[in-house]
């Protein structure tokens, strides 16, 4: 089934013959050098980067043809439509118990090793040590060495990345870091996508949020653990983290509460959730704080684990725009405090494809439901729309796609 949909992610693969074509590559490398000397220099200069820093930093830098997400000029590319045939990614796979347990075991060691630093960071920024260490572990496996040089990766992405427009602001920002003397360009390591150092900041984020916490005068998120941990905390605090709230908690949900009551647009005071019979799975008293909203979060619908999350959960989402990421960090931070695995079971993989999910979404749209865009992903709007449709058609609401539901789409 091939459908024309705007905004498709084009997966780009290069014809092997063209990729190995040396005259072609030489020509593109030449275009790259010409682009550096003109457009890239003009942008860097406008951002306050000196000619000397620009030239010395980019001297000898060539394109990295092995990075992901490239779209080189003039190459015959095979554009595949969105992978609608790919298996729909159920949250069960994301929360691999083995990976979570590994991160918790190593994370507890790091918590102990860096406890004085983390206590000082928590005192300044109000972000708990466990939350910072959870992000550090998830982002860079506690500071593991990164594979790429940030200048080369970002220059390549800015010149011929699929998202080159976004990276054109990142190259001047990266050069500015070198000019400020925080790190030598050769030691500025990143992911293939230019996410730098232990907190995985793009250069523009670095300028906003990186801090010098060890007091050596340099904001070194590559080699300094105190700088890296404080930079993560500074990001969260600046993006709205409030110390008086946790991120949320796993709960047992009485059957009287429908799954359609979930999502960030239906916050209710914690006291209301408690009064409605919601109870923490660990048997502790419900943390009722006046005036603080809680949000029901059901990542796998009614049959999966249930959570009441706070506004801090949505701050965690600022680090990486995904509900499952925010839950991963929240849950891992609890594990670092010796909490156990999820109490609720994740459903087994359903074997649905993203095309199946999109077909269901498109059907719901024709019925007037808001699914947040028919993209084959199951966000909170799609979950609520499924639940509302199930109720309207006399089914028990699960707020999650399954084979029987897909089969009932005309
Ligand atoms: Ca420092």
Topology:
Elements: E1 11-14, H1 16-19, H2 22-46, H3 51-58, E2 77-80, H4 91-94, H5 97-113, H6 115-125, H7 129-140, E3 148-149, H8 150-160, H9 164-180, E4 189-190, H10 203-209, H11 225-238, E5 248-252, E6 268-269, H12 270-275, E7 279-280, E8 293-297, E9 306-309, H13 311-319, H14 323-336, H15 354-366, H16 380-392, H17 403-407
Antiparallel strand pairs: 1-2, 3-4, 5-7, 5-9, 6-8, 8-9
Helix pairs in contact: 2-9, 5-7, 5-14, 6-11, 7-11, 7-14, 8-9, 9-10, 13-14
The chain binds calcium ion.
Calcium ion binds next to loops.
Strand order, main sheet: write it out: 6-8-9-5-7
Question: What oligomeric assembly is this protein in?
Answer: single chain
Helix share bin: 40-55%
| DSSP strand content | 5-15%
Helices and strands, in order, run as EHHHEHHHHEHHEHHEEHEEEHHHHH
Secondary structure tally, helices: 17
Structural class: alpha+beta
The name of the CATH topology of the largest domain is Lysozyme
Cofactors, ions and other ligands in the entry: calcium ion
Q: How many domains comprise the coordinates? A: 3
Ranges where pLDDT stays below 50 over 5 or more residues in a row are: 1-18
Q: For the terminal residues, how far apart are their CA atoms?
A: 16 Å
Sketch the major β-sheet: 5 strands, antiparallel
Radius of gyration, Cα only, in angstroms?
Answer: 24 Å
Regarding CATH, which class of the largest domain? Mainly Alpha
CATH architectural group of the largest domain: Orthogonal Bundle
Secondary structure tally: strands: 9
Mean pLDDT value: 90
Silhouette: globular
């Amino acid at each position: 089934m091939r459908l024309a949909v705007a905004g498709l992610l084009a997966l780009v693969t290069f014809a092997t013959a063209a990729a190995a074509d040396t005259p072609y590559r030489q020509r593109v490398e030449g275009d790259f050098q010409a682009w550096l000397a003109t457009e890239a220099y003009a942008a860097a200069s406008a951002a306050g980067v000196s000619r000397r820093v620009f030239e010395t930093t980019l001297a000898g830098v060539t394109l990295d043809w092995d990075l992901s997400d490239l779209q080189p000029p003039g190459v015959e590319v095979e554009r595949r439509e969105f992978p609608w045939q790919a298996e729909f990614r159920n949250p069960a796979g994301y929360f691999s118990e083995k990976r979570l347990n590994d991160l918790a075991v190593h994370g507890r060691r790091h918590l102990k090793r860096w406890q004085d630093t983390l206590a000082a960071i928590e005192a300044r920024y109000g972000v708990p040590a466990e939350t910072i260490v959870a992000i550090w572990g998830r982002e860079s496996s506690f500071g593991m060495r990164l594979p790429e040089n940030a200048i080369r990766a970002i220059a390549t992405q800015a010149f011929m990345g699929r998202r080159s427009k976004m990276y054109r602001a990142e190259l001047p920002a990266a050069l500015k870091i070198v000019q400020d003397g925080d790190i030598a360009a050769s030691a500025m390591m990143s992911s293939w996508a230019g996410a730098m150092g232990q907190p995985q900041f793009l250069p523009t984020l670095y300028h906003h949020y990186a801090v010098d916490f060890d007091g050596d005068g340099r904001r070194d998120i590559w080699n300094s653990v105190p700088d890296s941990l404080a930079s993560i905390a500074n990001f969260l605090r600046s993006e709205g983290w409030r110390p008086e709230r946790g991120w949320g908690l796993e709960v047992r949900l009485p059957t009287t509460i429908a799954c359609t009551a979930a999502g960030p647009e239906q916050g209710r005071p914690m006291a209301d959730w408690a009064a409605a019979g919601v109870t923490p799975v660990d048997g502790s008293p419900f943390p009722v704080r006046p005036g603080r909203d809680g949000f029901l979060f059901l990542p796998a619908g009614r049959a999966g684990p249930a959570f009441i999350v706070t506004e801090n959960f949505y701050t965690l989402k600022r680090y990486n725009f995904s509900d499952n990421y925010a839950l991963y960090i929240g849950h891992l931070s609890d594990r670092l405090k010796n909490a156990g695995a999820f109490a609720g079971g994740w459903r087994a993989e359903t074997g649905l494809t993203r095309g199946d999910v999109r077909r269901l979404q498109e059907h719901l749209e024709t019925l007037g439901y808001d699914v947040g865009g028919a993209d084959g992903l199951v966000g909170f709007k799609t979950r609520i729309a499924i639940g509302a449709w199930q109720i309207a058609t006399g089914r028990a609401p699960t707020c999650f796609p399954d084979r029987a539901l897909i089969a009932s789409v005309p």
